[in-house]
Tail specific protease domain-containing protein
Amino acid sequence: MDEDLLARIVVRLRERYVLPEAGRQAADAVVRALDEGAFVGRSGTALAAAVTEVLQTASSDRHLQLRYSGAPRDPAVGNEWDDPEVLAAYWAEQDHHNQGIHRAERLAGNVGLLVIESLDEPEGTGPVIDGALAFLSRCAALVLDVRVSNGGAPTGVAYLVSHFVEPPTRKLLDVVDREGQVVMQTWTQTHLSAPRMARQPLFVLTSGRTPSGTEELAYDLQAMGRAVVVGETTVGAANPVESVVVDPHFLLRLPTQRVVNADTGGNWEATGVVPDVACAAAEALGVAHRLAAERLLASGAEVPDAVRRELEALVRT
C-alpha cells in the first residue's frame, strides 16, 4: 500500500472531480478506508480494485476508477490522453478492431444489423461507419447493437446519429465542466458521405454492460423519439473522464465534466438508459427483429413476395 499515492488521489478528487460535493465525499471515503486498514497488504491490481470499490460506493460513478498499469508512465504527463504516443498506440490498436464497427449484416425481411463495439472520434471511425451504412442503406429497418461495447466519444456518437435524422443540424449535448461552463457541444452534421437512413424504423439493443458513449447513442436516439431501445438497463456512466497518471503504475479515471442532453436537460448518469422494451440482453435481437417486421408490415409498403413471407414468418415467432 502506498499512502502517498492515496494522498494524491484524495487531492485530485477534491480539486478536480466534476461535482465538488461528491468529490469531497469520495475523498473522505478513501481517507476513512485508509484509516480503517482497508488497503493494508494490497498492491498492484488488488489495490486498484479496492480503491475503485470505495470510490464507486461513495459516488455511484461507474467511470470513477483506479487502474493499475504494468508498463510505467510518466506522472508529469498528467492526463495520459495528452501524450501523443499513447494516442497513436490507441488508434493503431483500434485499427485491429475495425475502429469499433464489428459487423454489418442484412437479416431476414431486409432488416439491417450494425454491431458496434465502440464509437470514437469520427476521424478514426467515420470512414468505417460510412462503409457500413452504405452497405445497409437499402434495408427497410435498422438495428444498432451495442450490447457488448466499450463506450466512445460524444463526437463519434454525433457522427453516427447524424445519419438517422433529417437536416438541418440539431444539438445533441452540452459538455459542462466543474464550474458549470459549457466547454463543448455536439451537433448532428448536414453533409455526410454515406446515405441517410432518417425514415427507416430504428432499434437499439442494450445490455447491463453497455457503457458510456454507447449508452449515449441509445439515450440520444430514445430522447428524440427516433429509436426504440430494446434489452436491459445500461451501466449508467455518463460523466466524461480524464485518465490521470497519479503514479508510474496507476491511472485515475477521473470524471471532470458532465453532459446535458438537449432534449431532456439531463443524462443517464447512475440511472442508465431504461429500455422501451425490456428483455434479457440475449433475447434482444430476436425481439427487435420481430418488432421491425411488425412495423414494416403495418406500414403497408409494397415489398417483394419473398420479403413479405420473411416478415410474416418473423411476426409469427
The first helix runs from residue 3 to 16. The longest strand covers residues 101-107.
